[in-house]
Amino acid sequence: MAVQKPSIPKGTRDFTPIEMVRRNYIFDTIRSVFKTYGYLPIETPAMENLSTLLGKYGEEGDKLLFKILNSGDYIDKVDQSIIKPGNSNQLSMAISEKGLRYDLTVPFARFVVQYQNELTFPFKRYQIQPVWRADRPQKGRYREFYQCDVDVIGSDSLLNEAELVMIINEIFTKLGVRTTLKINNRKILSWIADFIGYPEKLIDITIAIDKIDKIGIEAAIAELEGKGVSKEAIAKLHPILTLTGSNAGKIEKLRKMITDSEVGKKGVAEMEEFFEYLEALGHIKTEVELDLSLARGLNYYTGAIFEVKAKDVEIGSICGGGRYDDLTGVFGLKDMSGVGVSFGADRIYDVMLQLNLFPEKLMSSTKVMFTNFGRYEATYCLKAIRMLRENGISAELYPDATKLKKQFDYANKRSIQYVVIAGESEMQNRQFSVKNMTSGEQETIAFSNLNEYLLGKFS
Questions:
Q1: Looking at residues 44-48, what average pLDDT do you find?
Q2: The pTM is what?
Q3: Domain chopping of the chain, boundaries
């Protein structure tokens, strides 16, 4: 009987060492910028109570939640009348009390409420952890993926939005990814729904608009028609979504159009103030564009919304977020406004891999390798290896006494910069031969000088 080859669930991945060092390069870059701006790290559990998660992401988001079966005989306590075909949703709620987190923002809101007496507001936090969505796996879209979130909560100031744009700009500049940041405001979207005569269909309208990049404007219009939005209303909507010009020009056009909506006027005023702060901060590499077709479907956004796309690769957004005025309110803490963005590490990885942006020497975790010709030669090397490690130089001894060519091949594949050779001649003279694996040059160094010599190479 053939043994079945092991596999992993669709939409999940294993990561090889080269993939891990590249991913850690992304995480370390993102984390270093977060810390520079004064944000503090937190972590939350992989699973949350379903009562925490449900109803926060809209109807479509709720469908993508991974639910966790209750422990023990979970069927025994269920009303038997609901165990029947076509009743899977009600049944799943009866046998599942917990779920894997869908994002990091809702758990963060729960965290803030739970620990509100221990936090100093405004509270600036970052969080780098995996999330799970029961989505259809495809290129750039996984069921398990990492998010790198940065949020400030307890402040209404639009300076926070401007700071987030600077963080986005700095991270992608360090990573070498050319980006466009699109921004809109949910208050403007609320005005749009009212302007075309369908204020009660705001969610349907934003969900359809949010799909324009994926399915095109014509398909999004067809979806709106399917939701009962008239052709006359869509005719009024179309020129707004395709508004062109500079950011200042778009704001001016909107101001002239919005005459009787206080919510709409406030949205425009917020965008104007945001762009004033951005101009004061000076030139940035990231292109920032006011895009009225940007919607972001999550229900908890109330103000500015962001989405970042790579300029040189066709892939979905690699960063996004927005302002939420009362997300903590659903957990009992009212009037706690926050704003944040989430970096999609997996999509960023795909972009950087496609553009060949990872530094070549990332795999060189070991800087120096000592050859191994046998027990006595290995013993001779151990003290020198310890001294290098104590001085912060990563070093290793090849574990087996084997052919020198094999050991050199290992060093080359690992991108190890220097190989230290200790044979009979070197041991008799208390020396080492040091080979530069890039240039091929080889020098003889006294045992007592090896540490200083290599420190000079890596300083």
A1: 97
A2: 0.85
A3: 17-65+102-354, 364-458
CATH number of this structure's domain 17-65+102-354: 3.30.930.10
What's the pLDDT at 293? 85
| Structure-token pair, residue 185 | 């405001």
Is residue 445 classed exposed, middle or buried when 0-12, 13-18 and 19+ CB atoms within 10 A define those classes? middle
- Tell me the mean pLDDT in the region 329-336: 89
- 365 has pLDDT over 90: no
Residue 45: asked if its preceding bond is cis (omega within 30°), the reply is no
User: What is the per-residue burial (b if ≥16 Cβ within 10 Å, else e) of 227-265?
Assistant: eebeeebbeebeebbeeeeebeebbebbeebbeebebbb
Strand (E) or helix (H) holding 379: helix 375-390
Give the pLDDT band of residue 416 (cuts 50, 70, 90): very high
Domain covering 364-458 in this structure, CATH number:
3.40.50.800
Q: What confidence tens digit (pLDDT) does each residue in 390-407 have?
A: 999 999 999 999 999 999
